[in-house]
Every structure is written in structure tokens, then in C-alpha cells.
Design a protein that fits this description.
By secondary structure, this protein is mainly alpha-helical. It has a domain at about 1-100: Helix Hairpins (Orthogonal Bundle), CATH 1.10.287. The protein is about 70% helix and about 0% strand. The protein contains five helices and two strands; from the N terminus they run H-H-H-H-H-E-E. Strands 1-2 form a two-stranded antiparallel sheet. Helix 2 packs across helix 3. The longest helix is centred in the middle third of the chain and has 61 residues, at about 75-135. It is elongated, with a radius of gyration of 32 Å. The two termini are about 55 Å apart. About 10% of the residues are buried.
Length: about 190
């Protein structure tokens, strides 16, 4: 059961798991590659595997302290790869976080804007259903009341389906959101 839960968590967070795995692989491959190229070279300051991994972590995070750096051409090419990989992975993680935050904000917005009309609509629909159930005993007055309720529901649904903005000063309505009212010149909020 524990492995199934781990797999479910990993699948739910795949936009973060893949970059994390890439980071670890790039640190291991980049650090090992720089160590193999640099450790025997005259004047190299990356002479131990631990120093190479430290250099890879510092380079992939784009901190670059400068305490360790490659001096050979191949070591510098590996460094370029590690630097650009670090930048790309940071950008992909930030993109995933931004998208998740945007999705949550949109769902909160939909729940706030969608809940109120549906409650009003449900009350009116329930009233209509109750009147339809009493269709056998319907009088002319009840029939007229039912028609008025249906027309009111239709008007309410049509008005709420359009997003419109209203000037608080003059009452002028707009389909899009202008900055200023074309009638009175006041700002639209």
C-alpha cells in the first residue's frame, strides 16, 4: 500500500518530480565529468570529487561563488551545459508553480461567481416545479403567476450570462471593462 501511495503522489506532482530528477542527474553527471577532466590537470582547483559536486550544485543554482571553477576547455563546456540546464530547470519549475497558482485562482473565481446565480436559479426552478406539480388545480391567476416567474427566470439568466460593467455615477452599462465612462467620464470600478 505504501508504494502505491508514493506512486500516486509522484504522478500528482509530475511537474516538480521531473525537474528534481533532472537536477540530481545533471549534478551527478556534471560533477563527475568536471572531476574526471580537471583533477589531473596542472593548475586545476577541482581536485576532489566532493569539490566537483559542490561546484555542480553551486553552478546549477546559478549562485557561482567562484571558489571552484574549471580551467580546461572540456571542463568549461561542461560548465556551460550545467549553467544553462540550471536556468532552464528553474524557469520550468517557476512556470509550473505559476500555472498551478493561476488554476487555483480561476477555480476560486468560478466558485464565487457561479454559486450565487445557481442558488437563485435553483429557488426559482423549485418554485416552477412545485407549480407544475399542481397543474391539475391550476387557476388562471396561478397560470399568470407561473408565466411571470418563467419570464423573470429567463431575464435573470440572460442578464447574468453577460459580463457587464456599470458606471456607478450615471448607470451606463458596458460589455467590456473600459477605464472611463463614455457618458460622464468617471472611472469604472
Amino acid at each position: 500500500m505504501g508504494i502505491d501511495r508514493l506512486i500516486a503522489i509522484l504522478q500528482a506532482n509530475i511537474p516538480y518530480v521531473v525537474p528534481a530528477i533532472l537536477i540530481v542527474l545533471i549534478i551527478i553527471v556534471g560533477g563527475t565529468g568536471v572531476y574526471l577532466v580537471e583533477h589531473g590537470h596542472q593548475g586545476a582547483n577541482i581536485t576532489r570529487l566532493g569539490d566537483a559536486f559542490w561546484w555542480a550544485v553551486v553552478t546549477i543554482t546559478t549562485v557561482g561563488y567562484g571558489d571552484y571553477y574549471p580551467v580546461t576547455l572540456v571542463g568549461r563546456l561542461i560548465a556551460i551545459f550545467v549553467m544553462f540546464s540550471g536556468i532552464g530547470i528553474v524557469v520550468s519549475i517557476l512556470g509550473s508553480l505559476s500555472q498551478r497558482r493561476l488554476d487555483r485562482a480561476e477555480s476560486r473565481f468560478r466558485s464565487k461567481t457561479g454559486a450565487q446565480p445557481s442558488l437563485l436559479g435553483n429557488e426559482i426552478v423549485l418554485e416552477i416545479k412545485n407549480k407544475i406539480d399542481l397543474l391539475d388545480k391550476l387557476t388562471d391567476k396561478d397560470f399568470d403567476s407561473l408565466i411571470i416567474t418563467i419570464k423573470s427566470l429567463r431575464r435573470t439568466l440572460l442578464e447574468e450570462s453577460k459580463i457587464s460593467y456599470k458606471c456607478t455615477w450615471c448607470g451606463n452599462r458596458y460589455g467590456g471593462k473600459p477605464k472611463f465612462c463614455s457618458n460622464c467620464g468617471h472611472g469604472i470600478t
